[in-house]
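Quarterly update from the structural biology core.
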Amino acid sequence: MSVLQTRAVKKKYLMGQVTVNALDGVDLSVEKGEFVAVMGPSGSGKSTLLHLLGGLDWPSDGEITLAGKALSGLSDDEITLLRRRGVGFIFQFYNLLPTLSAEENVALPLLIDGKRIEDYQGKIDQLLDLVGLVERRDHKPDQLSGGQQQRVAIARALVTDPQIVLADEPTGNLDSKSGLVILELLRRSCDDMGQTVVMVTHDPRAASYAGRVIFLQDGQIVDQLALGETNDVERILARMGALE
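Predicted structure, tokenized:
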């Protein structure tokens, strides 16, 4: 079952008197429980695509369907509600609130949605355990390492049981050891929880944790690679090298 579909999606920007085609007819389908990595050279449209998939921006043309709902048919309020409940976001720089504890940051999407935290305490505890931060639940972000902050961000992204998690360079600000922990957590969220993940990355090693890699160039999908072999990183490098 497809959780996410795009059909002939285009995105144009006007820079001065020049029109930039950031995306130029993207067709993509992501199945439930799938882990998809999006790669491509700088300026290929990776982040633009992720923003459109999450309803953070509007396409110039084409259609995006998320959780069975065509985004073009929704009002701004309905888009906001779908994004709040149906999409989990993980960013490169964590975006945690500095005045809140790790546990409070995890619970924040529930509070914004008007939920009673007491009703979801079991879920919060489960996620803190998943990311290995039960003993640091009362720590503020400045008392946590970068890797620990990103683990809080993952738990926060999962707390609403979203249809899909969108991750924008989630390991880009971390050392290699912390980055591997984050990638393993994302992989586990798919394998153990049936979560669907779309991750933008420039790192072939990060992409190798996905089940499929989409390659963008000049705003178009130019190649795909199904993973699961022992030499996945080398295969990804070879495909990226062909684009540059």
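The helical segments are 46-53, 76-86, 102-112, 121-130, 146-158, 176-193, 204-207, 232-243.
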